Amino acid sequence: LSGSQTNDTKRQFLLERLLDAVKQCQIRFGGRKEIASDSDSRVTCLCAQFEAVFQHGLRRSRGLALTAAAIKQAAGFSSKTETEPVFWYYVKEVLNRHELQRFYSLKAISTDVGRGRAWLRCALNEHSLERYVHMLLADKNRLSVFYEDWSFMMDEERSSMIPTMAAGLNSILFAINIDNKDLNGQSKCTPTVSDLLKESTQNVTSLLKESTQGVSSLLREITASSAVSILIKPDQDSDPLPVLSRNVNA
Questions:
Q1: Number of H helices, E strands in the chain
Q2: How far is residue 178's CA from residue 149's CA, in Å, rounded to a whole number?
């Protein structure tokens, strides 16, 4: 496969994994009074898939945060992995002063990796993720400063589905712990696209052939869900989706 085909396949795979994670949470928690917490593997998987999408194709050479991290590394104050770009660098561009202060004031969160993860979980809890994603995608020039051209966020067609998926989660009562020291782990803890591809039972060829119909069908189901009735039904004949371990390193 050429470079552009490979990148397209990775973006498609990320999209399908995120759609599946949203669907599994809707099936389990949608429209119910039951709380969806991070003790449930489906919620953990959902957060991991959103992280993978937001991390994909982040530029390594832009942003004052990267420069500051590089200076700290040279001075011996941080490990090499901390210079890796994380999606918090871009998210904080759309947050106001009060919102920024909220995440920098968390007692257990001490890294930019953790702040990004805390923001994502907070947005799920408060049903504000759809609004935030619209803000993240609105300024194409700013987006291109932080993301490579081949990134998921720069893929207009696929990234435009994220707000719809976020809206599909609004019937779920999330109560995810955001001030949690476990969220501080380095960005390497977020599954990379290559890791996710290894986990997949589908090969690249079948993925390209079958993906379009599956995505449109899943998106219709997610859009059709409401707070009163969730129209998505689990496939009785299929095996449950694999879920990510809470401790990926282990």
A1: 12, 2
A2: 31
Q: Rounded distance, CA 228 to CA 198, Å?
A: 37
Over residues 55-68, the mean pLDDT reads 71
Give strand ranges (E) for the chain.
35-36, 173-174
Domain assignment of residue 145, yes or no: yes
SS3 (DSSP) at 81: helix
212 residue type, one letter:
T
Output the six-digit token pair for 153.
């966020």
The C-alpha atoms of residue 23 and residue 165 are separated, in whole angstroms, by 9
pTM of the complete model: 0.72
Instruction: Give the whole-number percent of the chain exceeding pLDDT 70.
Output: 65
DSSP-assigned beta bridge partners for residue 35: 173
Query: What CATH code is carried by the domain that includes residue 125?
Result: 1.20.58.900
The alpha carbon of 241 is separated from its chain's Cα centroid by a whole number of angstroms, namely 17
Taking alpha carbons only, the member of 138, 133, 100 closest to residue 118 is 100
**pLDDT, tens digit, 9 for 90 and up, residues 76-128:** 554 444 468 999 999 999 999 999 999 999 999 999 999 999 999 999 999 99
Q: Does residue 108 lie within any of the structural domains?
A: yes
The answer to the question of residue 241 being in a domain is: no
What's the number of domains the chain is made of?
Answer: 1
Task: Determine the Cα–Cα distance for residues 14 and 192; give it in Å rounded to an integer.
Answer: 10
d(CA 41, CA 176): 12
Pair 74, 145: CB distance under 8 Å: no
